[in-house]
Amino acid sequence: MVVLANKNEAEGLKKALNTLVRQEGCKVCECFDILVIDGGSKDASKEIAETYSMKYGCINFKVQDVKGGVGPARIEAIRYALDRGYRFIVWGDSGNEYSENYMKELIKVYRSMSCQVVSGSTKVRHSSVWTRLLFWYHLYHELFSFVGRRHAPGNNKLVDVETYTKALYPPSSRSDDFYFSLLASKKGIKFCHSRNAFIKVSMPAAFRDVIAWERWRVKGLIEGAYMMNIGIPPILPAWIMYALSPLLLLLSAYLLVTPASISVLKILSALFISLYLLALAGIGLKLEMLSKHFYEKPVICQGLIGLLGMYLHSIFTTYYAVKYYLVLRKQKRALQERAIYVLRKFRFDPEILFNRFD
Known about the structure:
Number of domains: 2
Helix content: 40-55%
Order of helices and strands: EHEHEHEEHEHHHEHEHHHHHH
Strand content: 5-15%
Radius of gyration: 21 Å
Shape: globular
Number of strands: 8
Distance between the termini: 30 Å
CATH class of the largest domain: Alpha Beta
Oligomer: single chain
CATH architecture of the largest domain: Alpha-Beta Complex
CATH superfamily of the largest domain: Spore Coat Polysaccharide Biosynthesis Protein SpsA, Chain A
C-alpha cells in the first residue's frame, strides 16, 4: 500500500497520483493500492482523489481520525494496512512525483538485499533561492552513506509491515520518521537504499515558508523527545555545534596568533582550524557533485551555496530547539498521555514506543 500524506495540496496530490498510476513493472491495483490520508483539507483534495478512485478502485481517501500532524496519520495508516493484510507500506507525500520504475526498484532492493526498510533517491525541484540553499536536505543518503544504513526519509521509503511490531512512530506533529529510524536501528532493523527509485520533491520556496517549515520540523522533534522521554535527540548536538562553529573558529584563530598563548593551545587551535576547513571543503565538494544529479537547476558553486544553507539550517534548528524545549516543558506529561491515547486507539501497545532500548 502506498500512503500519501496530504493536507491542502490538491495540485500536488494530482501530480503524485498521476505518476503512481503510470508505474511500470508494478502496476497500480495489481501490485499496490493507494491510501490518501488527509489531515482535514479545505481545498479540492477529496474531489481529486475521488476522480482517480472512480477509474482505479484501489485508490482510497480517508480523513484522519486523530488530527495533529504526520505522526498520528502514520499510526492510523499502519493499522489500516495491518487490518487489510498488506505486506508493505510505501510512504509518500502529495508533493511527490514518482519515476515510472519507482515501485519496481524499491521492491527489487528489498528482495535482493533482505532489508526491512528501503529508501529511495530524490530529485529536488528548483523554484527560488531558498530551494537552492536547502536542496541538500533531501540528499542525506548520498552525502553521508552511514545515514542510509540507519535512516529513511518519511516521504520516500518502503517498510515491511512486520517492522512495526518492533518500532513505531511517535504521534508527534513532525519529525516522527527520525524517531522511527532511531528505534528501528536499536532493534536491529536493516535499512537499505535504492539509487534507482526516484521521486521529485519540493522545498519551501519563500522565506515565510522556510520559517514555517523549520519551526514545525523542530517543534515535532521536541514533541517526540518529550513523548518518548529521551532527553536530547541525538541529532541536535551536531547542529548546535555547527551553529556555534564560527565562534570556535574565531577563538582558535585568536589563540593561534596571540603570542601569549601556550604552545599546546596553538597546536590544538591549528588542528581544529585545519580539520574544520577540510571537513567543510569535503562536504562542499561532494554537494557540488551531487547537485548535478539530484538538483533540478544547479549552478557553479552550488556546493558552497548548499553549505551556507546548512549553516542557516543549524541556526534555525538551534533557536527553535531552545524555544520549544522551554515552551513544551510543562506539556511533557500531556504529550506522553496523548502518545499513549493515539497508540491505544489504533490498537498498538505503547510499550513498543516507550521500551525502546530493551
